[in-house]
Amino acid sequence: MRKDEHYVIGADFGSDSVRVVVLDAADGRVAGQHVSYYPRWKKGLYCEPRENRFRQHPLDYTESLSEAVVAAVKAADEWRAANGGRGPVSGLVRAISVDTTGSTPVLADGAGVPLALSPAFAEDPDAMFVLWKDHTAIAEAEEINNLCRTWGGTDYTKYIGGVYSSEWFWAKLLHVTRGNRRVAEAAKTAVEHCDWIVAALTGTEAPSSIKRGRCAAGHKLMWHAEWGGYPPADFFARLDPKLAEIRDSLGGATWTADVPAGTLTQAWSRRLGLPESVIVCVGAYDAHIGAVGGNAAPGVLVKSIGTSTCDVIIGPRPKPGTAERLVPGICGQVDGSVVAGWIGYEAGQSAYGDYYAWFRNLLSWPLRNLAAIDLSLGGVDLSLAEKSLLRALEAAAERVEPSASSPVALDWVNGRRTPFSNQNLKAAIAGIDLGTDAPILMRALLESTAFGARAIIECLEAGGIHIERIMAIGGVARKSVLGMQILADVTNRVIEVTAGDQSCAIGGAIFAATAAGLYPDVFSAQKALCAGTERVHRPDPKRVAIYDGLYGRYRRLGDFIEGETK
Question: For residues 430 and 557, what is the distance between their CA atoms, to the nearest angstrom?
Fold first, then answer.
């Protein structure tokens, strides 16, 4: 055994599952990993997609985390034994970092416990976590935007791109508390998933004890040092007195993700099989932690590409006496939201892989429904057929050559996040004729998400953000070779895809190693622990020219659809 042998854990809560990795803190080798799927979410409980309502029970998070950590540490024990080590890895774990999707808030009682964990609210979706892609609060978001523009004080959206989104904390809470007074009366505070899971692990759930992360607070809760924290209670009271009450429960301080929030409670120590001395870092959002795992650096745009995308880049703080330059249309610019001491800039698309999944489900409808009534199809594995469908569509789409007359699609199937959030917007497809088949449409959807990515790059650069390199992380980036090549051709940029499946969890391990004092700062830990580049996509000059023309059609189609949308 090395005298300096240490291990760190990164836990990445995604939309469907939690992914846990155990890393050797010396060199970043993955000693063990495990993915656990949320059991209730998998059954579709508490959600109504037709109403854009997506809720998750807190037990899905705690049960899946326990399962994933125990399994990942067991795998690490086997890995260590195979490499000549003796004894369990658990005793050598120094710290754990947690990231989650966001904004994913929950209403909680006076002790900071989510209402859904009490028998009275155990089956009430409004007492559960409101997932990032829940868009039931569109009207409430617009109320917040109107108030920011008209109330006569500071515009509290100026550091979040100028628009407050229905995907974010205050809009969701306003919608839920107005629509369910029973829940509203029981709620004394609210907490983001990334902050609550850390508070639960460390036994600091009381609202006054929670170390709320700078990442969530700055990007989604309108926290900023310029106005001393959150907007004043009077601002929220004009929307609803309940919001003012919740605001006052949050405190004023926020912390960056390299700061220890505490150590494991005795109960969680036993549950995870780890020492109570294990440090738990302040929580943050998956894309921001993942950006660090994807080699975030000044000038490097990290695109986390999965069901949706989150694009993150860091830049220097303004010089003393100089005002911070505002970037209109993005999802926030926050000092320390990614790396302490640097401004983190966030943008993204509300659907990426979700768009492809929608198309797969559309094409699979006859198969699923015919099987229900045709006994001769009883032996068909429908889940396997659906999983292979996207691969087959992409393979066929690769043989489709783009042209000036190709169909053009908008990627707004789940609204638009950036530039300028607008969740009222819908997708559209133009240029279809009788010769349009499924592979052609599949390619149009791949191109549409790349067009949306190009619009984000142009938005960032128009705001003065210099982009030298683009790194792609996440499941879609690694699986869709054609999608990443189209992204390179549409943006006329080299796209580097990181090695390894778990950039977010690896990013978490980087923060854990820093918080444990194993490295002096995040960049030093990043250099030692990050995975390398798996493949590089370079733009094809011939297709770049074609896509320039199609991108112009995409923008004009978007202008038309937006003009027709109330």
Answer: 8
The answer to whether residues 529 and 21 touch, using CB atoms and an 8 Å cutoff, is no
Residues ≥6 apart with Cβ < 8 Å to 41? 16, 47, 56, 57, 60
Report in angstroms the alpha-carbon separations of 359 from 53, 363, 390, 439, 440: 20, 6, 9, 11, 12
Angle between helices 503-515 and 522-529 (to 10 degrees): 130
pLDDT along the chain (566 residues), means of 10: 78 94 94 96 94 96 98 97 92 97 96 98 98 95 96 93 95 98 98 98 96 97 96 97 98 96 98 98 95 94 93 94 94 96 96 94 83 56 74 96 97 95 95 97 98 98 96 93 98 94 87 96 94 94 98 98 90
Query: Residue 33's closest CA among 67, 72, 77?
Result: 72
Helix (H, G, I), strand (E, B) or coil at 346: strand
- Read out DSSP for 17-61? EEEEEEEETTT--EEEEEEEE-HHHHTTTT-BGGGTB-EE-HHHH
Euclidean distance between CA atoms 102 and 219, whole angstroms: 10
At position 99, the amino acid (one-letter code) is D
Round the CA-based radius of gyration of the chain to a whole number and report it. Answer: 23
- Spatial separation of the C-alpha atoms in residues 472 and 168, rounded to whole Å: 24
In single-letter form, the type of residue at position 412 comes to W
Total-model pTM:
0.92
